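=== RUN LOG ===
request id: a7f3
mode: sequence -> structure
chains: 1
length: 324
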Amino acid sequence: MSALRPPGQAPRAPVKAPWLTRSGVPPLLVGAVRHLPPCLLLATTLALVGPFHPLHAEVAANAPAPAPPPERGQNSPASVRPPLTAADQEYPAAQIEAGRTVFAAQCAFCHGRDTAGGESGPDLTRSLLVASDDRGDKIAPHLIAGRLEKGMPAFVLPAADVAAIVAFVHDQKTKADHSVGGRRSVEPADLQTGDKVAGQRYFEAACTRCHSASGDLAGLAKRLEGLPLLRRMLYPTPAADAEPAHGPQTVRVELPAGKVITGKLAYRDEFTIALVDADGWPHSWPTDRVTFTVDDPLAAHVAQLEKYTDQDMHDVLAYLQTLR
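=== RESULT ===
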């Protein structure tokens, strides 16, 4: 370039833009960057220096390792084991049963009938106070004084009732300490929320085409109760220890020539329908070559699931529990 400069002329000073800093970044942007939070400052720096600047490697090398993602369910209270009881305690069975009765009358509304939590009270099997209690030295004063700030009133109870409550609570706590998993059980009383009269009306309107309270369902509540009865009502797939179902699925197949063959459904998918006739002979056809109708005794239960409300389910359950 010097060969193109006229003789005697000094080299021209490089042009300097007044709106740029030495690094080529506008001063206003530099001032703004100084006030960014650290996380945004890092992102801005990386954007300014470009994707292949050595600073990237230095930042990556010095950055703390990301925290591992939480395992599935580890934030659930049920995934945390209850605090272990500080002192092993045993109580007479009669005292525990007496405590169950008193607890159900005085405490179950808030803490649940099994001490595992209710409408507004915590799960006592996970209570640090219960875990550290030694034969009522902490539970009894707590009962007598109450905790008004937490909504728990003071109780005026005979000493025998207080001791019985302590025995029952510790018995439930011991069961929780030795149980597998953190899920509470479902007692039959937990499901007693329905109206049996409304349930009978619903049953008579929706279920009597297949069932009879004095026929196939007579004595049902003697065989099943609580959650097993609710499961049987909603999902009546026969189990090994359940009463017999209404029978297998049957199918009626009409051939192109007009002949009709019926039997027990053996197999069905999108392409094939198969049955076993009354003589034990198997038959199968492509589904696009015949007309067939499957009679499934449980299909009405499947359809009913779309119609039930939560209240309907509990009302019908309440009615079924009267069938003794």
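=== NOTES ===
Residues 72-76, 239-245 have pLDDT under 50 and may be disordered.
The chain has four domains: 18-54, 84-185, 192-245+301-320, 250-296.
=== END ===
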